[in-house]
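seq as requested:
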Amino acid sequence: MSTRLLGRDFFNRLTVTVAKDLLGKFLVRKIGGREIALMITEVEVYDGFKDKASHVSRGKTARNSIMFGPAGHWYVYFTYGMHWMLNIVTREKDYPAAILIRGARSVDGELNFNGPAKLTKFLKIDGKLNGLVANKKSWLWIESRGIINSAIHDSLFKIQQSSRVGVNYAGPYWAKRRWRFYISD
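struct tokens:
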């Protein structure tokens, strides 16, 4: 199986396009000399200043400054006083956008993380990764392993979409945006 590390060019595109293309790619974490690779199965888009569900809707802060680029960096933040959330920054510098990685599983299906906090806990992801480039030097990266998304080969898996999870505070328009993408079994 051929693998290819996904770099800045992959992430420096429209956020919705990148989100769909991430499905079927592999989130790889190196822990204690061992690599753990999980196929990304669920993501959510947060795109631009106007997105009321995004951390940047009220402007640039110390917390969200990573979202302002460049693409291909990790945006990791702490929420509810107990969970780390893993996002990858997209788009051009100074346009704030990121994709929350909500779910992933092992190829054999033995490991299945259907929530972003479960995923970050298992992979030992915390704030030390915030702002780092998604590459092997950070010990956390995304790679293609030859699985192509359904936009090209519908027979491999079907991409579903729905509204984002837990963003009702953003108002009906933004809460109902169908910016959650996932692989249906």
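The first strand starts at residue 4 and ends at 5.
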